[in-house]
Amino acid sequence: MKAEFESLEDKVALLIQLYNDSRIENSQLREALMTSNAQCNALNAKIDVAANRLESLLMELPEDGA
To answer: Rg of the Cα trace of the chain?
Structure first.
């Protein structure tokens, strides 16, 4: 009976450790995701600026009269 309790205690300790490890990993993943989202938003803003510039340049090109 004592061995069963010790085995159960070891399993509970392992479960708690795995839970804590998962929480740490989830926190790190959330942080990485927020960084990636911020980078994505910055790149999308740059794309919008470039698209607007190209559109402006295209509007300034003379039309082909031929």
So the answer is: 29
CA dist 9 and 20 (Å) reads 16
What tokens were used for 18? 């795995």
Sign of CA pseudo-dihedral 29, 35, 39, 45: positive
Q: Kindly state the DSSP code that residue 63 receives in the 8-state scheme.
A: P
Label residue 63 by pLDDT band (50, 70, 90). Answer: confident
Going by C-alpha positions, the residue among 10, 13, 14, 18 that lies closest to residue 2 is 10
Model pTM above 0.85? no
pLDDT in tens, 12-60: 999 999 999 999 999 999 999 999 999 999 999 999 999 999 999 999 9
